[in-house]
Every structure is written in C-alpha cells, then in structure tokens.
Amino acid sequence: MDFVTSWSGGKDSCYAMMKAIEQGHSPKVLLNMMNENGKISRSHGLPLAILEQQAQKMQLPLEAVPATWTDYETHFISTLQKLKTNFGLQAAVFGDIDLQAHKDWEDKVCAAASLEAVLPLWQQDRIALVNQMIESGIETMIVSCNTQMGESYLGKIMTKALALELEEKQIDPCGENGEFHTLVINCPLFSSALEIPEFTVKTYNDYCFIVWKDTD
C-alpha cells in the first residue's frame, strides 16, 4: 500500500514508518500539523525548517498544515483526502503505541478519507520498543519534557541506559503520555544526519522545551 506518514519529527513516527516499509508498504508523503502561524509543529514544537530538512533527507514531500486546535480535525481530514487523491494513497501510518483514544481518532479520520489506519507499534512493550529503535539506527534527541524530568534532559540523546533511567524514575521510556518528545537527527531513512541549529532551553507552564535559533 502507498501511504502518508503522520510525521511528528520524533522517534515513534519514524520507527512506525520504518516498520511499515519493512511490511512492504511504500511512503509517498509526510504530514505534519503546525500551529496557526505555520512556523512550529503542534506536537513537538519543531520549526518548519527542521521538518523540511528531515523530509529532504528522506526525499519525500512534506505537507505542513497550519491549524488551530478548534479546526485541527477538519483540516486533518481534508488534507488526508487531498493527499489520497494527489498521491494515490491507500493508508496512513501513525506511531501511537497504546493510547486507545488516539487510535480511535486515527481510525475515525482515516475512515472519513477512505484510508486504512496503520499502527505498526500498537501495543508493543515500551522499553523493548525504545531498544529496537536504537538498534535499528534511529538517533533521537529529547527536545521537550515535563518538569518532573527537567531542563537537564533537553538535548540528551536517547540511549538504552537513558531509557532505563527514565523507567526507574517511573517515566514512560517512550514518552507516550507526553512526558517528553524527541527529534530524529539520524536514521536509516536519512541520506545523512540533520544539521542541528543552536538552541537555548526554557520552562513555560510546567513544560521544558528547546528554543531553536536561526530557523526562520
């Protein structure tokens, strides 16, 4: 099946895409929902320039869609419908692991666009998944996290040791509940590693995040 990847820029969407390719499916386009001004991604707070760099390194087009939370679903469905027509798609690939509400929503929006929702990571063990991602060659950096983790984790590369450390602190090593988000800086799908802009860190409303420089 030809598919669109719901691309956050992070490890889960990347690994889901890699697994879908392993299963014989073919990626045609990446979809990311941006904030209303179209400059920063809604899910991971990544600048458009970084997402475009990832897409270029995979030689795939990126559909970056500005949306408010109010019209998010409407825009998501209409974009899926457009991409289905433009790229001859049969499926959409998502990186969710076990949040049922997320899967229900993905099934719903895909049904509205007559696409099959494919979730290659669904209901797999968290720590095993992180280890598989690392072993498969996915290199990710933590770009935002909650204050339980704190600013010291920002910019850290995910390793097996770090995943265990998080688990020991009762933090989901996949960050499935939003404990942290990652940026894929290299993986087998990329032609080469990302060039990472300089950044500072900031805490706002009980969440710590990277502030990127020179990405406009």
Automatic annotation (TrEMBL):
Its EC number is 6.3.1.14. Keywords: Ligase. Pfam families: Diphthami_syn_2. The keyword Ligase applies. Residues 4-210 form the Diphthamide synthase domain. It is an enzyme of class 6 (ligase). Transmembrane segments: none annotated. It comes from the Bacteria. The keyword Lipoprotein does not apply. This is Diphthine--ammonia ligase. It comes from Flavobacterium humi.
